[in-house]
Amino acid sequence: MDKVDIIGDVHGCYEELISLLHKLGYQKENNYNHSEGRVLVFLGDITDRGPESLKVMELVYHLVITLKKARYIPGNHCNKLYRFFLGNKVQQRHGLETTVAEYEQLSTSDKNVIREHFITLYEQAPLYLQLPEVNAIVAHAGIKESFIGRTDKQVKTFVLYGDITGESMEDGRPVRRDWAKHYKGKEWVVYGHTPVMEPRRINNTINIDTGCVFGNALTSFRLPEEETIAVPSKQTFVEEKFHSFKVD
């Protein structure tokens, strides 16, 4: 994988994903082959909140599992959906309810296919991706330098949820430490999870969750070029969902 296109949190925004794939040079008619041999990487949270989670899920499954042309790592929403499909009791809120509503509309046979596909996609995914060819690590909510190479429970929590303190803000969102500010690693860490209005580059990290589902944009990060490419969102803009970081 000498050239990769890492896609930020899609959250069920299928139309925007197709637009971004076209802009990046991947065409369905060409079975999503790229003329430069580029590889797509999805950094988690492909479902929930948006209008077409199941279509996004099926496309990612097709690219990753069937065609073996793309890579995928899970996010916290993926983890929750996986537990739902296993039959665990999970609260259907914070976006899961939209995916479940789509799922409940399906016939029993279609439900079985979707469930089986997502479980396969999730279980075959690494916790995070190390891409030495482009000197990068892709982790849904990021990763500390000292965690790289580990997959224990502490690392899993960090990769899925970020550097959480255990406290909550007034609106219920978890308080997170700004781990990227202290990152000293030589490898790029490409992540999402926390919606920002513009891709946030600090040290060798970049957050590319530009809040497509909240009306801003769907962003990709290209390596080795180190450039971002985005398409505008078609969703309603919700300003309070975006995180602004304190400038020291």
UniProtKB/TrEMBL annotation:
Gene: prpE
NCBIfam families per UniProt: PRK13625.1 (NF010148)
InterPro entries: Ap4A_hydrolase (IPR050126), Calcineurin-like_PHP (IPR004843), Metallo-depent_PP-like (IPR029052), MPP_PrpE-like (IPR041780), Ser/Thr-sp_prot-phosphatase (IPR006186)
Organism: Oceanobacillus kapialis
One Pfam family per UniProt: Metallophos
Designated name of the protein: Bis(5'-nucleosyl)-tetraphosphatase PrpE
Domain (Calcineurin-like phosphoesterase): residue spans on this chain: 3-196
